[in-house]
């Protein structure tokens, strides 16, 4: 699957595709793909307030996968999207392996361009990150989705686990076509006057620039694992500028995800694209692909850490 | 037919600060040059603004006044956290990024020409915008504005020359701007400010409603913005008098354009509960759907 630009709008940040088009100057032509909000079999109301809260260089969210259910998304929302503007990717969630299968079946029979399996949502009681932090469970979910569809499958990995590269390999073996690295990290904020968590769900997922160094390392770790399999990665986590995006490409990502940065500046994609083009010209490169995984590591040093 | 009427309804504008004044109770009034937003805004609209270049996450703030001709928008805000603290330091000439206007505005109805506007604290601004809008676009309407505050009002109060039935003796303080526009206003507080009603906005509103005859009362619609407990009391008052009532809500926001579902409130509908986004499904909602009755 090819994208018009390496930019991908991230799930949960852009609703079901049309929301940001409210903003004058925003265009789907700026991005290669748009990931829709996490979708489950049944409609979900999501978590109680507050659901979002700013933290240093980022934010916490615990939306709780509010969505109208896969059937509604396919029957009522997809027909309103203009697939000539960009590619649209469904984002699947479930409390059971069976639910992932059912949702994947529903999207298989739709115009959606690809399926992203979210096994890394930290904000729901069942499923989500419980699957994502266990490589065998992750592989199980990928396997059943693979049976459900021939459309491209992207598996979104959790950073809240010990060995993300091992998990990535198990997902590749189970049949994923691509990987998304990383979802949010779990975190908390406390209202010291009330002595309660600020977030209604008590804990939430941390996103934004605060997680960028973590996301970059995880992307590189997964890239080294994926390289022989030629499985592409959508790198994400805290990208707000062209330079951030270029770092992820160098680390091994084939595409770069933009989420929280949209909240800062809804028109950020145009400037990221322009910055990438400028960089390619300055380095006399003709294509982004020449950049992917071009990281040259320092010689392993024997010096102790710290 | 335009199948995507929502598109291009919100603009990003770099807005220079034209004026910025501090008032008692950590309140500030800021006026910004934002001609496109000034053109498009309606009472109830808000903007999502960047308080400081180094604090990229925006803050939602409701619009108090606009001048479409001169191209400015004005806001009243209270310093409550890090963002508003940084905002309070912005100087004349500095530029802020505004995203707006956002949201479903208040709706006036021709058959209800006696709008009762109730604003509390930082919920005052949309009521001022509403009063201005009524003055300019509904000259036949007879609005009454009731405002409550537990910190000094962010304007010099003055005795009103507009007589009102049902208002207790001595409750004469009003907002000069509204008085100049010929719009009746009265103030309430528990802080015993001179000329203000000593009690809740809803008690003052009830006193006024009680003196209207049934045909006049049928012409009333209530519009309100303020802290949640006040809005709940306003909704109860509306139910008591069987009046329609629109309230403007607040919630923490991330995107403010409907993308993240971070700002939802539970709305009761005949089909069951729905989670609605305050940013684009609101901020104005039917009070009965928010608070029941
Ligand atoms: C408000 C919000 C909602 C999100 N919802 C989802 C979701 O439904 N499914 C999902 O896979 N990821 C979800 N994410 C994670 C993002 O897609 C992305 O992976 C993460 O935020 C890191 O990127 P960023 O730092 O650029 O935002 C959400 C993130 C945010 C901030
Ligand atoms: S703040 Fe994102 S949907 Fe309202």
Q: Can you give a write-up of this model?
A:
The complex is a heterodimer of chains A (306) and B (293). Chain A has 306 residues and is of the alpha/beta class. In chain A, 30% of the residues lie in helices and 18% in strands. Chain A has 9 helices and 14 strands. In chain A, the strands form 3 sheets. An 8-stranded parallel β-barrel of chain A has the order 1-2-5-6-7-8-13-14, surrounded by 5 helices. The termini of chain A are far apart. The model of chain A has no long low-confidence stretch (mean pLDDT 94). Chain B has 293 residues and is an alpha/beta fold. Chain B has helices at 35-40, 82-87, 124-137, 176-180, 201-211, 214-217, 228-240, 287-291; strands at residues 11-23, 27-33, 46-49, 59-62, 65-67, 72-78, 95-102, 114-120, 144-148, 158-159, 173-174, 184-189, 197-198, 220-225, 245-248, 264-269, 272-277, 284-286. In chain B, strands 4-3-7-1-2-6-5 form a 7-stranded antiparallel sheet. Chain B has a 7-stranded mixed sheet with strand order 13-12-9-8-14-15-18, sandwiched between helices. In chain B, strands 10-11 form a two-stranded antiparallel ribbon. In chain B, strand 8, helix 3 (124-137) and strand 9 form a beta-alpha-beta unit. The longest helix of chain B is centred in the middle third of the chain and has 14 residues, at 124-137. Chain B is globular, with a radius of gyration of 19 Å. Chains A and B meet through strand 3 and helix 8 of A and strand 16 and strand 17 of B. Bound molecules: flavin mononucleotide (FMN) and FE2/S2 (inorganic) cluster (FES). FE2/S2 (inorganic) cluster binds next to loops of chain B. Flavin mononucleotide sits between chains A (10-13, 37-38, 61, 63, 65, 91, 118, 121, 156, 183-184, 207-208, 211, 236-239, 257-261) and B (254, 260, 262).
